[in-house]
Amino acid sequence: MPRARTRPTPVRLGWVLATLGLLALACAASVAFGVRAVSVSDIAAGLSGSTDTIAQAAVSKRVPRTVLAILVGAALGLSGAVMQGVTRNPLADPGILGVTTGSSLAVVCGIAFFGLSSPVGYIWVAIAGAALAATFVYLVGSLGRGGATPLKLALAGAATSAALSSLISAVLLPRIDVMDSFRFWQIGGVGGAETDKTLQVLPFLALGVLLSLASARGLNSLALGDDVAAGLGAHVGRTRLLAATGAVVLAGAATAVAGPIGFVGLAVPHVCRLLVGVDHRWQLPFSALVGAVLLVAADVVGRLVARPEEVDVGIVTALLGAPFFLWIVRRQKVRAL
């Protein structure tokens, strides 16, 4: 196991404050920039209820989009940190382990075969699909000698993601109406944010956050190994179940509302461990904060690089995350947490 990396509390607090500042800047940029830039005075007027067209556009379109990006980024960052802690696998994240693909398949099947149309229904179905996919990947990765090793889990997740993606295509191809409605959703983005849908997903995200943060101390024990954790009085099975449930709820709810967005849950925990150390009591909330910054910033980049069109945030995170994934795989020292 790698040597523990600790950070003094003032250093951790400094990084938290700096990240909060970055989040504020990213949110300001998200509201100000797009197909048409708006000034600070326009934004202030819109927030104060002005009837000006530009100001109203800034508030009615960009503010809900920014809020959704914050929530989805925080959910994916926190979910990835928890999954890496539960599996002790540095390659774990909702996308690589097949969780987001399971959510996508469940939602697409619900729409195509059962006429699913309720936003809350999307969330429940997405969470169920995420749970089934996560359970399947863990069971397959646990087969054979050595149990659920990081390599076996990554391979099982990659194979499961590929299989589920093929099933999604098989369901969609004969159904043009469903494909037209959800082909952009499959890419992953926050462009269609609506306040009502965001409010509906909030309780699920809040539940996932509570379960994840409640497992922080137990994840610290699991990092020492199951036998040591049990010897220290930790309930290994209960901790894994609690943490995994929180991670699955977060990933499923985020996928239901924004589509499958990859690599946020992979990259964010690694950055957070470098900045605040391996203590999950700091790492988990910081991962949520950094995830929010990353997704808001990626959404702004997607709006600016292809004006007057947009690049969905799922594409931007994939372009940023793929090299990061390759760097992690090539690191000799990062074979387990």
TrEMBL record:
Provide any one GO MF term from the record: transmembrane transporter activity
Q: Topologically, how does it sit relative to the membrane? A: Multi-pass membrane protein
Q: Which InterPro entries match?
A: ABC_BtuC-like, ABC_transptr_permease_BtuC
Q: Which domain of life is it from?
A: Bacteria
**Which biological process terms from the Gene Ontology are attached to this UniProt entry?**
siderophore-iron import into cell
Q: Where are the transmembrane segments?
A: 66-83, 95-116, 122-141, 153-173, 201-220, 241-266, 286-306, 313-329
Pfam families attached here?
FecCD
| Gene Ontology, cellular component aspect | plasma membrane
Q: Where is the signal peptide?
A: none
As for subcellular location, the record says:
Cell membrane
Coiled-coil annotation reads none
**Key words, A-Z:** Cell membrane, Membrane, Transmembrane, Transmembrane helix, Transport
List the CDD domains hit by this protein, alphabetically: TM_ABC_iron-siderophores_like (cd06550)
Identify its protein family.
Belongs to the binding-protein-dependent transport system permease family. FecCD subfamily.
Protein name in UniProt? Iron ABC transporter permease
Protein source organism: Nocardioides bruguierae
